[in-house]
Structure formats: structure tokens, C-alpha cells
Design brief:
CATH architecture of the largest domain: 4-Layer Sandwich
Shape: globular
Helix content: 10-25%
Largest sheet: 7 strands, mixed
Structural class: alpha+beta
CATH class of the largest domain: Alpha Beta
CATH topology of the largest domain: Purple Acid Phosphatase, chain A, domain 2
Radius of gyration: 25 Å
CATH superfamily of the largest domain: Metallo-dependent phosphatases
Strand content: 25-35%
Strand order of the largest sheet: 15-16-17-18-22-19-23
């Protein structure tokens, strides 16, 4: 026993010794052995980032935990100043957090809105919920004050019911950013999920693309499937609004959810909510008129789900309420979803085909998921295709042109067009 005690005492003594460590030339400096700290555990958590009102200075984040994690924070700093997350230059911002009940569980929603960021700057960040949630490391880059040209991606209708379906959405996103690795953001024109009241599908949607959406800002429009609420757990599209952190407009209280806009480079982009009654569509048209009057950007783009000019579905109410506003405002491009095939219209004005440069072009980006619809001829269609595979659209914005390229996930160029001013 004494021998064992002696060995143990000697072991402790060794651990507590003051050592002299070599610097390579035989010289040594004295220091005590630092206490061993457990490694930080990276939690497999989905973090989604959205633009704030100004993509050059504002960025918003959302993530979800169990109710036991009542608060959280984001830790970040400019990439060129980053050493580690324990450095004194790491900025920490606490979340706004709230508890929700879904159709299957209770959970905590965590949101952070960052402001006063430096334009054209890459930041490194992570999110933390004590005691045991630490996200993977992400990056985001704010928009430059002057950016010309730039590209963004449109994907739509990624809806599905199981993990296999959402792997298709992941593949579409990966293929789009492999083809356009410098694309600045993703516009998703709705129907992210097949049944918006089922939280499992929202989790499948987000979890499928965790490594991507922690770095890629997403600009979401709400779709009809996202808005489903038969079981009463998705009131006012809460599963959509819980998942994203969209900058609110000044008059947001008088508008449906998910109506917003932002400038990027030489484009002004507005997102509308077509899951609305005629009265709300009219209010959105009035808001859009006011919104577009404030911008001096060369290009005016609208993103929405139910397109005024699609294929399979007849959206006459939306066409009647919104296209006269688009005509008046001289909207250049409208990005649509809902129809699950690829459509590019003639330039349209007063519900009539017009010459290039005299009307609005409407693009429906087929499907980024498992569901496809057959083609259906309409008088406004210049192109109506169904290749039977997932597609994405890349829009490249410069001072003099909008170049729209539509690809399938096999890297086949399906369609291309150029709008000029």
C-alpha cells in the first residue's frame, strides 16, 4: 500500500513539476503545466443566414434548439482578424429567443440581427448555446458598396416528404454553386416543403443543406405548400417565419408576412407573398410602388411563388392585381415558382406580348426537388420545357444587362436570354 501511495504521489508530483521547455537551441523557459480543458463539441445544428435591410451592413441568423437552451449568442469577427473564438476581438451578440409548439414538439427559436458591419468584408462566425451547443464555423460576406457584375441563383419548389426527396434539393443547390461558385446569394421562390404544417419536413429541408446555408444567404418567398395550416399549428405561416429571419419593412404590420426588399449591386429585388387574398395583393402592389420609387438601381426584380404567367396553374387573380403594377413600375424580371416546369415568357405588358425592352420577362424555374408537371401551352410563353430533372437559374447582373441562364443538374444549359438597357 505504501509503495502504491508512493508511486501515486510521485505521479502527481510529476504533473505539478515546473518544467523547462526547449526552444530549439537548448535554452528553456519555466512554466507550470496548464490544466487540461475538455475539447469543445461541435453540434450538428442548422444555421440559416438571411440579409438584413442592407446586405452591405446587415445580416440576420436563425437556429433552433430544444427548449432547455433558453438563450444563445453569435460570435464573429472579420476573417482577416480571426485567430480563434477565444480571442479578445471576437464580438458576441445575444439572441432574441422564443419558445414555440409545433405539431410534434416544443422548441426554442434563436434569432440574431447584426448591423453596422463593414461593406465588402468576409466574416467568420459560429453560434453558441450553453452549455453544450456550438455550431460549425461559418463565413459570410457583406455586399460591396459598388459591385458590378454579380450573379445570384434561383431555385424553387424543393418540396418533399422524406429524406430521399430532400437529397435532391441538396444536390440542386450544390450543382448550382459548383457551376457559379462566386454567386452571392440564393433566391428560393417557395414551396420549400410539401406540407408546411409538418415540422419534420422543415427540419428535413434545413438539415439537408446545413453545410451550405450556414455560408450562403437565402432570400425566401413563401409558397402555398409552406403556408398549409389544416391542423392549426402553422398559423400566419409561423413555420416559415420561425425558420427565417427576414428584415421587416416599416409598414410590415399592414402587409402579409414575407414581403420585403433589398438592394444588391445595381439591382433592387422585392419579394412578395402570393398566399394572400385579393385585398392583400392590392396592398402589396401599393407597397411595391412606394418601394420601387425609393430606389435608383438600374434593374428592378421581383420574386414570388404563384406566377402571373406560368403554365399548369391559372393565376388570374394575381395577374389582374399585380401585373398592372409591374407594368407601371417597369419591372424587368419576375422570378416565379409553383408550376414545376420551365417557362420563359415573351416580354409582357398590358397582358400582351411586346418587343424586347418594352415589358417584363417572367421566369419559372421548374423544380429543385422531386415533383414535375407536364408542359401546358399558354399564349405568353416563349419557352415551355420539362426536361424531367431538377433545374436552377443563374441571373448575372451588370450595368447594361441581365443575363439569365437556366441549367439542369447535369450541367446542361436549358435556356439563356439577355435583357438589355
Amino acid at each position: 500500500m505504501k509503495k502504491q501511495l508512493k508511486i501515486f504521489t510521485s505521479f502527481i508530483a510529476v504533473l505539478c513539476l515546473v518544467f523547462t521547455f526547449s526552444t530549439g537551441d537548448g535554452a528553456f523557459a519555466a512554466s507550470a503545466i496548464a490544466p487540461i480543458t475538455p475539447p469543445q463539441i461541435i453540434t450538428d445544428i442548422s444555421v440559416i443566414n438571411n440579409f438584413g435591410k442592407d446586405p452591405a451592413t446587415d445580416r440576420n441568423f436563425t437556429w433552433i434548439t430544444s427548449p432547455s437552451n433558453k438563450t444563445g449568442m453569435i460570435q464573429y469577427c472579420p476573417k482577416n482578424e480571426f485567430k480563434n473564438f477565444n480571442s479578445s476581438n471576437i464580438i458576441k451578440v445575444t439572441t432574441t429567443s422564443y419558445k414555440v409548439k409545433t405539431d410534434t414538439d416544443s422548441r426554442m427559436i434563436h434569432k440574431v440581427a447584426l448591423s453596422k458591419l463593414k461593406p465588402g468584408t468576409t466574416y467568420i462566425y459560429r453560434v453558441v448555446n450553453k452549455p453544450d451547443i456550438i455550431s460549425a464555423q461559418g463565413t459570410f460576406k457583406t455586399a460591396e458598396n459598388k459591385l458590378n457584375p454579380f450573379t445570384f441563383i434561383q431555385i424553387t419548389d424543393t418540396q418533399g416528404s422524406d429524406e430521399k426527396d430532400y437529397k435532391l434539393w441538396k444536390n440542386t443547390l450544390i450543382k448550382a454553386f459548383e457551376k457559379f461558385p462566386d454567386a452571392k446569394f440564393l433566391v428560393h421562390t417557395g414551396d420549400m416543403v410539401d406540407d408546411g404544417q409538418k415540422i419534420k419536413q422543415w427540419d428535413l429541408f434545413a438539415n439537408a443543406v446545413k453545410p451550405e446555408l450556414i455560408n450562403i444567404p437565402i432570400v425566401p418567398a413563401v409558397g402555398n405548400h409552406d403556408a398549409m395550416n389544416k391542423n392549426g399549428t402553422n398559423s400566419n405561416m409561423k413555420n416559415f417565419t420561425d425558420r427565417f429571419n427576414i428584415a421587416k419593412e416599416i409598414d410590415a404590420e399592414s402587409l402579409p408576412v414575407a414581403v420585403y426588399s433589398f438592394d444588391y449591386g445595381n439591382a433592387h429585388i422585392a419579394v412578395l407573398n402570393t398566399e394572400s387574398e385579393r385585398y392583400d395583393l392590392k396592398k402589396q402592389g401599393e407597397w411595391l410602388s412606394s418601394d420601387m420609387a425609393k430606389t435608383d438601381k438600374q434593374w428592378k426584380i421581383v420574386a414570388l411563388h404563384r406566377g402571373p404567367y406560368g403554365a399548369v396553374h391559372e393565376s388570374s387573380t394575381i395577374r389582374d392585381e399585380l401585373t398592372p403594377v409591374f407594368d407601371k413600375l417597369k419591372i424587368d424580371l419576375v422570378l416565379q415558382g409553383h408550376d414545376h416546369n420551365y417557362v420563359r415568357t415573351y416580354p409582357m405588358k398590358n397582358k400582351t406580348k411586346v418587343k424586347n425592352g418594352q415589358g417584363t420577362v417572367y421566369i419559372t424555374a421548374n423544380s429543385g426537388g422531386a415533383k414535375f408537371y407536364p408542359t401546358k401551352s399558354r399564349y405568353w410563353q416563349l419557352i415551355d420545357l420539362q426536361p424531367g430533372t431538377q433545374m436552377f437559374v443563374a441571373v448575372t447582373v451588370s450595368d447594361s444587362s441581365l443575363v439569365v441562364n437556366a441549367y439542369d443538374v447535369n450541367n446542361v444549359l436549358i435556356d439563356t436570354t439577355t435583357l438589355k438597357k
